[in-house]
Amino acid sequence: MNTLRLLSWNVNGIRAVERKGELQRLLQTTPDVLCLQEVKAAPEQLGQSLLAPPGYYAYWESPARKGYSGVSILSRSQPLEIRAGFGVDRFDNEGRTLVARYPSFLLYNVYFPNGKASQERLDYKMDFYEAFLAHISGLRDCGERLVICGDYNTAHSELDLARPKENSNQSGFLPREREWMDRLVDAGFIDTFRMFHAEGERYSWWDLKSRARERNVGWRIDYFFVSDNLRDAVIDADIHAHVQGSDHCPVSLTVRT
């Protein structure tokens, strides 16, 4: 049986994670695909160890604004196709989406917007959500098998954060954001972690300023969703809270190919 192991990690600055040695340690576990979000660097700001990591093809997408956003895919096999964005300039110009086609699925690595800064950014986030859901729903309806990973910047249910009541009025757990997650599921997309783990207290992001990670006061906002026509290929999904270096930890998906 052939399998692919995919990891997704919001690194909150790729250069800092590399300096700490955490990226190298993660690559030593030899994931077949490593999707990174919030890399905060353009290719011209990176050294060869990142531009051409041994054993991997490396692809980067970054916005014009320096030190902001950005996504990357490191892949042990060369994708059949690689492209940036999903066809809406207003969202693609922030460098949030990188798409790779593999023989058995189409992979979307997405850094979804954060809506906490202002009402304007919350509206931008919700508009991004709507446009992206329409895009992937159309592909699924045409028979595409999709994997969508990244930092979604929303905890779906009360099980997905340590303090739901205290955060019910905060972006990241607003009813309208959670309702979009419901519609994502209703549209035929599956939260792969919940296929294997029904328990709470498993999180992928913790606030650094309050040292919340030490107390496991966190949020699960990093996901691997797959289209329902890929369900039978999913072997495992997990969260790797032991990996340090960022305020997020990696999440993983293993699929049969």
Write the layout of secondary structure elements.
Elements: E1 3-10, H1 14-20, H2 22-27, E2 33-37, H3 48-51, E3 57-61, E4 71-75, E5 81-84, H4 89-92, E6 97-102, E7 105-111, H5 119-141, E8 146-151, H6 175-186, E9 189-191, H7 193-196, E10 205-206, H8 212-215, E11 218-219, E12 222-227, E13 234-239, E14 251-256
Tell me what the structure shows.
This protein is α+β, with helices and mostly antiparallel strands. The mean pLDDT is 97. The longest helix has 23 residues. The chain has one domain: Deoxyribonuclease I, Chain A, CATH 3.60.10. It has a six-stranded mixed β-sheet with strand order 3-4-2-1-14-13. It is 25% helix and 28% strand. It has eight helices and 14 strands.
Give the structure's gist in a few sentences.
The protein is an alpha+beta fold and 257 residues long.
Looking at this protein, list some descriptive labels.
single chain; 257 residues; alpha+beta; Deoxyribonuclease I, Chain A; 6-stranded mixed beta sheet; globular
Average pLDDT for all residues: 97
SS element count, helices? 8
CATH class group: Alpha Beta
Strand content: 25-35%
Instruction: Tell me which CATH architecture applies here.
Output: 4-Layer Sandwich
Report the strand count: 14
The tally of domains stands at 1
Rg, rounded, reads 17 Å
Shape category: globular
Structural class: alpha+beta
How much helicity do the residues have? 10-25%
Measured distance between first and last alpha carbons:
8 Å
